[in-house]
């Protein structure tokens, strides 16, 4: 025991007088190891602590504090109590003693067994005896850490202290400047707020001491070891300021003052400089968003406090600053000012009332005073943005529109702009009209009627495509909102117009006919544009059907083009109409039966062939009808679609014509059987069947499917007419793709494959092409759904690459079909079973076969393989191409030297993306590549010349040392295409040559 | 371009760029011969960069389509360019850039004549004479630093 106290004494001696800092560690170790207790240490310190020299006392306390830092965990409650009393007492001592005292206190606050009440008394003495801000940086940090520690453990006690604690804290942090300490102080303030300490009458004080740092202006020194960022400070302060609603009454004026003072003091400079001069859109939009937020914030405060002052004063500032820009003669600053005003406008209804009331009259007056169309258009665009911005904030309330007071003059301006002879003005006017119409309850019925009159007039006379597009769009928007008016005003006019025969028919002036055709074209697309609501569709589609009917009967003459456009319009309507029962019935019960009936009539009439043939016998028309049927079947009302499909099936299989209108058809037609004299006018109608049965959702079952499939198979293998057998094959494939997995599917496929193979293998067969077409389509159907039997078909396909009987390249072209998306069947819109990445899968499974086949093939067959390869690679996604190409490079180079232009083109289009980032293999083959590309410059096909030129241009971006040796040769070779007879080739040649000239030249690359 | 909306942005008046040439059906037809016309030549030179501003000659209205004359049959091209100010020291350089661009982009059967729009430059004659002199143009392009500036004018900015 005695030895221990001597040990403590000697340690104290060496630390205090010998100034050996390491002894503190030893002392702490002594306490920990139990060689002496803390109280024994205090006794040993006795003389140092009572020394008359403050530095000696400070040194003594420091030793104690250092020891406490190590072993505060082991202290008993009693010891803690004594130590706290000691330290509290020491706070009154000389100022040099204070730092170690604070350190000691900080360590004590970490103790878990603080005696009750001690935390409070500790704080009281700290707040009482110490002026925190006169301490050094680290001591201030010490105080803040103390506070944080106590707040963690003794929350209840501190709350008992009431607002005094807040006051003490406010006093101690008042004037803090160091960012590290500020972070701590902000954390304390945040805790105060978030943990519900009572702020009492010191709310404003707490706000003051924290908000004085707003906005944070801090840039860390260049090599700041602490790594504090402005962002951290901003976040911490924001957490404080926004932490409690009690701050709101102080915070809002502050924010407004900060923003307002900017607007005020700099008069358009700060906030608006931000908007006007900045080239950065992000800053601009942030500024505008801030303005919006501010205005909406102010508007809300108006609602609660019932005094309009702050909002209207604020808006007044903006208005005085911006409004005169709207009236300046050159309209230079119109857009920036208008943007500011619109940002404010979109914030709230009250703001929009104030601003529109101030701005609209002058804008409208300006419009009427300006003569120049471009100025008028600018003003109109500004007006449109205003209407739009108001629309954003008006969603919820059913107030009357802000623009009610200006309805008349706005309509006047819009209508006068529509009557102007300037297309861009007209286009802007249509969009203003759309926005106005979308303002609930603004326009009167008579306004809409007048608007429709204007739109109709423009549709009929205006030649400019952009205008008619804008007009049709506007009419579509109006039709959404006022279907009844569109039905009664617009549709009859358009119908009439289409039926007026062109005048001076006998003279037959070409231009007149042309313009009449253009009017019909615009009417047709306008009819499609307005048909979104089912009620409008009910009225517009009969007009279109009537056009088809009169075209067929020849009552009114319509050209084939116009008939095709009519079908397109029907297709567009089917794509955009709301999928309701009403629309579904319209399409499935009226339009599709009519289309089928008309097509059938035309086909039967074509058989008789007397007089001028109906335009509906044309294959383009037939092909245009298919998407109408398939879109309705895939999109509208699955049950009704199923009904349509079963009707179509019974029509084609059993000759059941009962559902067709104008029913005067011969009974027992056999549409899928071989026709008399192999006539194709009826057989090709199978494409319409395809449209309906192949686009059904997979949940809808096709009736009589087995009978249908065998009829289709038979037809596709026997018919001699291309559209007929191709459609039959597609239809067959479409059904196979959706048929559920199972034995019946497998046996069906095997049967078909067998038949196809026997046709293809028999040299005498006359239906090679038909069998091949069926095979390709079935392969595609199976490839898309990853069916295991697909591999048998691929093998057959590869073997056909050697087949001479099929005609040159047919098999190779088949691969292109296999890899590309089909528009009418076997795509996702038709609900086909399409697995992801089927192309990559096909490629990776078959590339080895292809390369092998190429190597084994006799010389004259090699081009087939090359073509197949380039067809496949061409359709792969670019990323896959880039990774796969190196392996296939020699093959592709081979492909470039053959005679076939199509191979050249597809190969070049595969190569081009790879050239952007050339792999090493390619650079090694550079000589060969350059030779082949330059040789292709003389190709007879312009597309090949263009493609090879753009590849040559890409070569110039290869590493300079690799391509520089070729420079002179390439430049000489490129001189020739500069004089090509085609301009597009010359353009590409000029670009390529310019790049190569810059290569290795000073100032170039 | 001619109706160009003027954005008076500090000094040079900037003119709107004309849009890309509209591609016609006959241009895509293999069998039709497209003659080299004014617009094609204009398209070659309009994107040349100004030596001083980050703008194209078209944007500064130094070159205009109406001042481009080409005769494909006789293989002649005549260009007049308008310096932005009468004392522009860059006039020769601009003329040289135009000339080099055309030399690189046209078949060598063409005789290329580049000169200043009459009455728009103080030392019009001297500049025209320099530009017309084949030897001097060739000599200028031997000069590495001059070639560097010309190449910079001819580099496409967008890449």
TrEMBL record, chain A:
<dbReference type="Pfam" id="PF12460">
    <property type="entry name" value="MMS19_C"/>
</dbReference>
<protein>
    <recommendedName>
        <fullName>MMS19 nucleotide excision repair protein</fullName>
    </recommendedName>
</protein>
<comment type="function">
    <text>Key component of the cytosolic iron-sulfur protein assembly (CIA) complex, a multiprotein complex that mediates the incorporation of iron-sulfur cluster into apoproteins specifically involved in DNA metabolism and genomic integrity. In the CIA complex, MMS19 acts as an adapter between early-acting CIA components and a subset of cellular target iron-sulfur proteins.</text>
</comment>
<dbReference type="InterPro" id="IPR024687">
    <property type="entry name" value="MMS19_C"/>
</dbReference>
<keyword id="KW-0539">Nucleus</keyword>
<dbReference type="InterPro" id="IPR016024">
    <property type="entry name" value="ARM-type_fold"/>
</dbReference>
<keyword id="KW-0206">Cytoskeleton</keyword>
<dbReference type="GO" id="GO:0051604">
    <property type="term" value="P:protein maturation"/>
</dbReference>
<dbReference type="GO" id="GO:0097361">
    <property type="term" value="C:cytosolic [4Fe-4S] assembly targeting complex"/>
</dbReference>
<keyword id="KW-0963">Cytoplasm</keyword>
<dbReference type="GO" id="GO:0006281">
    <property type="term" value="P:DNA repair"/>
</dbReference>
<dbReference type="GO" id="GO:0071817">
    <property type="term" value="C:MMXD complex"/>
</dbReference>
<keyword id="KW-0227">DNA damage</keyword>
<dbReference type="InterPro" id="IPR039920">
    <property type="entry name" value="MMS19"/>
</dbReference>
<dbReference type="GO" id="GO:0016226">
    <property type="term" value="P:iron-sulfur cluster assembly"/>
</dbReference>
<keyword id="KW-0234">DNA repair</keyword>
<comment type="similarity">
    <text>Belongs to the MET18/MMS19 family.</text>
</comment>
<keyword id="KW-0677">Repeat</keyword>
<dbReference type="InterPro" id="IPR029240">
    <property type="entry name" value="MMS19_N"/>
</dbReference>
<dbReference type="InterPro" id="IPR011989">
    <property type="entry name" value="ARM-like"/>
</dbReference>
<feature type="domain" description="MMS19 N-terminal">
    <location>
        <begin position="42"/>
        <end position="277"/>
    </location>
</feature>
<dbReference type="GO" id="GO:0005634">
    <property type="term" value="C:nucleus"/>
</dbReference>
TrEMBL record, chain B:
<dbReference type="InterPro" id="IPR039796">
    <property type="entry name" value="MIP18"/>
</dbReference>
<dbReference type="InterPro" id="IPR034904">
    <property type="entry name" value="FSCA_dom_sf"/>
</dbReference>
<comment type="function">
    <text>Component of the cytosolic iron-sulfur protein assembly (CIA) complex, a multiprotein complex that mediates the incorporation of iron-sulfur cluster into extramitochondrial Fe/S proteins. As a CIA complex component and in collaboration with CIAO1 and MMS19, binds to and facilitates the assembly of most cytosolic-nuclear Fe/S proteins. As part of the mitotic spindle-associated MMXD complex it plays a role in chromosome segregation, probably by facilitating iron-sulfur cluster assembly into ERCC2/XPD.</text>
</comment>
<feature type="domain" description="MIP18 family-like">
    <location>
        <begin position="39"/>
        <end position="110"/>
    </location>
</feature>
<feature type="region of interest" description="Disordered">
    <location>
        <begin position="1"/>
        <end position="32"/>
    </location>
</feature>
<protein>
    <recommendedName>
        <fullName>Cytosolic iron-sulfur assembly component 2B</fullName>
    </recommendedName>
</protein>
<dbReference type="Pfam" id="PF01883">
    <property type="entry name" value="FeS_assembly_P"/>
</dbReference>
<dbReference type="GO" id="GO:0097361">
    <property type="term" value="C:cytosolic [4Fe-4S] assembly targeting complex"/>
</dbReference>
<comment type="similarity">
    <text>Belongs to the MIP18 family.</text>
</comment>
<keyword id="KW-0159">Chromosome partition</keyword>
<dbReference type="GO" id="GO:0007059">
    <property type="term" value="P:chromosome segregation"/>
</dbReference>
<dbReference type="GO" id="GO:0051604">
    <property type="term" value="P:protein maturation"/>
</dbReference>
<comment type="subunit">
    <text>Component of the CIA complex. Component of the MMXD complex, which includes CIAO1, ERCC2, CIAO2B, MMS19 and SLC25A5. Interacts with CIAO1, ERCC2 and MMS19; the interactions are direct. Interacts with KIF4A; the interaction facilitates the transfer of Fe-S clusters to KIF4A to ensure proper localization of KIF4A to the mitotic machinery. Interacts with CCDC117; the interaction is direct.</text>
</comment>
<dbReference type="InterPro" id="IPR002744">
    <property type="entry name" value="MIP18-like"/>
</dbReference>
């Amino acid at each position: 025991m005695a030895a221990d106290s001597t040990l403590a004494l000697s340690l104290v001696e060496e630390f205090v007088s010998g100034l050996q800092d390491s002894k503190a560690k030893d002392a702490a170790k002594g306490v920990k190891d139990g060689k002496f207790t803390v109280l024994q240490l205090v006794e040993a310190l006795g003389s140092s602590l009572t020394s008359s020299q403050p530095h000696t006392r400070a040194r003594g306390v420091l030793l104690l504090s250092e020891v406490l830092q190590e072993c505060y965990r082991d202290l008993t409650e009693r010891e803690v109590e004594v130590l706290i009393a000691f330290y509290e007492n020491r706070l009154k001592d000389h100022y040099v003693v204070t730092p170690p005292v604070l350190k000691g206190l900080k360590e004590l606050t970490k103790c878990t067994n603080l005696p009750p009440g001690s935390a409070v008394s500790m704080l009281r003495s700290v707040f009482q005896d110490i002026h925190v801000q006169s301490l050094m940086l680290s001591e201030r940090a010490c105080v803040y850490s103390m506070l944080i520690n106590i707040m963690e453990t003794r929350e209840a006690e501190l709350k008992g202290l009431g607002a005094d604690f807040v006051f003490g804290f406010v006093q101690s942090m008042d004037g803090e400047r160091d960012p590290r300490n500020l972070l701590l102080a902000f954390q304390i303030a945040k805790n105060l707020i978030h943990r519900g300490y009572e702020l009492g009458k010191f709310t404003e004080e707490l706000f003051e001491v924290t908000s004085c740092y707003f906005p944070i202006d801090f840039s860390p020194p260049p090599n700041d070891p602490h790594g504090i960022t402005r962002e951290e400070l901003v976040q911490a302060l924001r957490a404080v300021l926004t932490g409690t609603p009690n701050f709101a009454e102080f915070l809002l004026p502050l924010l407004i003052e900060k923003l307002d003072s900017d607007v005020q003091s700099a008069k358009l400079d700060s906030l608006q400089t931000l908007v006007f001069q900045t080239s950065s859109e992000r800053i601009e939009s942030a500024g505008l968003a801030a303005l919006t937020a501010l205005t909406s914030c102010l508007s809300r405060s108006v609602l609660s406090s019932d005094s309009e002052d702050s909002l209207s004063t604020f808006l007044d500032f903006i208005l005085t600053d911006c409004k005169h820009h709207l009236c300046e003669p050159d309209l230079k600053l119109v857009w920036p000012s208008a943007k500011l005003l619109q940002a404010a406008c979109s914030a709230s209804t009250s703001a929009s009332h104030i601003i529109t009331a101030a701005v609209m009259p002058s804008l409208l007056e300006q419009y009427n005073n300006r003569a120049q169309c471009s100025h008028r258009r600018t003003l109109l665009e500004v007006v449109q943005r205003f209407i739009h911005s108001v629309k954003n904030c008006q969603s919820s309330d059913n107030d009357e529109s802000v623009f009610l007071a200006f309805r008349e003059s706005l309509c006047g301006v819009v209508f006068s702009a529509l009557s102007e002879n300037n297309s861009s003005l007209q286009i802007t006017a249509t969009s203003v009209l759309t926005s106005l119409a979308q303002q609930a309850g603004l326009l009167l019925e008579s306004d809409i009627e007048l608007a429709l009159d204007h739109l109709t007039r423009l549709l009929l006379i205006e030649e400019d495509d952009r205008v008619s597009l804008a007009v049709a769009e506007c009419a579509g928007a109006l039709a959404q909102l006022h279907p009844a008016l569109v039905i009664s005003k617009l549709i009859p006019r358009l119908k009439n117009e289409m039926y007026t025969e062109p005048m001076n028919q006998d003279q037959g002036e070409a231009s007149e006919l042309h313009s009449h055709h253009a009017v019909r074209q615009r009417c047709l697309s306008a009819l499609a544009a307005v048909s979104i609501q089912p009620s409008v569709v009910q009225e517009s589609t009969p007009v279109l059907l009537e056009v088809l009917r009169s075209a067929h009967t020849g009552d009114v003459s319509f050209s084939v083009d116009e008939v095709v456009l009519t079908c397109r319009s029907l297709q567009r309507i089917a794509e955009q109409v709301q999928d309701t029962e009403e629309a579904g019935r319209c399409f499935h019960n009226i339009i599709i039966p009519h289309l089928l009936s008309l097509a059938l009539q035309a086909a039967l009439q074509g058989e008789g062939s007397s007089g001028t043939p109906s335009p509906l016998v044309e294959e383009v028309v037939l092909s245009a009808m298919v998407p109408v049927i398939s879109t309705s079947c895939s999109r509208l009302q699955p049950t009704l679609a199923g009904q349509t499909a079963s009707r179509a099936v019974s029509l084609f299989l059993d000759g059941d014509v009962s559902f067709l209108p104008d029913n005067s058809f011969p009974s027992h037609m056999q549409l899928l059987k071989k026709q008399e004299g192999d006539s194709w006018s009826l057989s090709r109608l199978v494409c319409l069947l395809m449209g309906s049965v192949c686009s059904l959702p997979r949940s809808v079952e096709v009736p009589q499917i087995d009978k249908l499939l065998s009829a289709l198979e038979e037809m596709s293998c026997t018919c001699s007419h291309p559209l007929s057998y191709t459609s039959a094959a597609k239809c067959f494939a479409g059904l196979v793709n959706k048929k559920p997995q199972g034995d019946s599917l497998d046996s069906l496929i095997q049967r078909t494959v067998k038949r196809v193979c026997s046709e293809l293998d028999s040299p005498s067969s006359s239906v090679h092409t038909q069998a091949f077409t069926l095979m390709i389509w079935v392969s595609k159907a199976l490839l898309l759904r990853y069916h295991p039997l697909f591999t048998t078909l691929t093998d057959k396909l590869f073997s056909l690459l050697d087949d001479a009987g099929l005609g040159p390249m047919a098999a190779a072209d088949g691969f292109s079909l296999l890899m590309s998306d089909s528009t009418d069947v076997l795509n996702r819109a038709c609900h086909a079973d399409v697995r992801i990445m089927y192309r990559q899968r096909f490629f990776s499974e078959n590339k080895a076969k292809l390369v092998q086949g190429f190597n084994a093939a006799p010389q004259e067959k090699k081009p087939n393989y090359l073509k197949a390869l380039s067809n496949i690679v061409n359709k792969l996604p670019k990323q896959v191409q880039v990774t796969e190409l190196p392996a296939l490079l020699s093959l592709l180079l081979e492909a470039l030297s053959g005679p076939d232009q199509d191979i050249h083109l597809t190969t070049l289009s595969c190569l081009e993306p790879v050239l952007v980032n050339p792999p090493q293999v390619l650079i090694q083959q550079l000589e060969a590549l350059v030779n082949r590309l330059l040789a292709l410059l003389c190709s007879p096909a312009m597309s090949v010349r263009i493609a090879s030129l753009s590849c040559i241009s890409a070569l110039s971006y290869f590493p300079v040392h690799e391509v520089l040796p070729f420079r002179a040769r390439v430049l000489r070779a490129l001189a020739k295409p500069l004089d090509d007879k085609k301009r597009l080739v010359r353009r590409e040649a000029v670009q390529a040559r310019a790049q190569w000239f810059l290569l290795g030249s000073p100032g170039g690359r | 371009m001619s109706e160009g909306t003027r954005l008076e942005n500090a000094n040079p008046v900037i003119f709107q760029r004309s849009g890309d040439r509209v591609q016609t059906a006959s241009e895509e037809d293999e069998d039709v011969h497209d003659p080299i016309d004014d617009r094609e030549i204009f398209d070659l030179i309009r994107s040349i960069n100004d030596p001083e501003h980050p703008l194209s000659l078209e944007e500064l209205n130094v070159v205009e389509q109406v001042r481009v004359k080409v005769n494909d049959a006789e293989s002649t091209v005549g260009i007049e360019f308008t310096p932005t100010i009468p004392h522009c020291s860059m006039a020769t350089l601009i003329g040289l850039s135009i000339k080099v661009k055309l030399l690189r982009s046209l078949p060598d059967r063409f005789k290329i004549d580049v000169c200043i729009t009459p009455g728009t430059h103080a030392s019009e004659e001297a500049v025209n004479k320099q530009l017309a002199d084949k030897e001097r143009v060739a000599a200028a392009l031997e000069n590495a630093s001059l070639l560097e500036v010309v190449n910079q004018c001819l580099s496409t900015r967008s890449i």
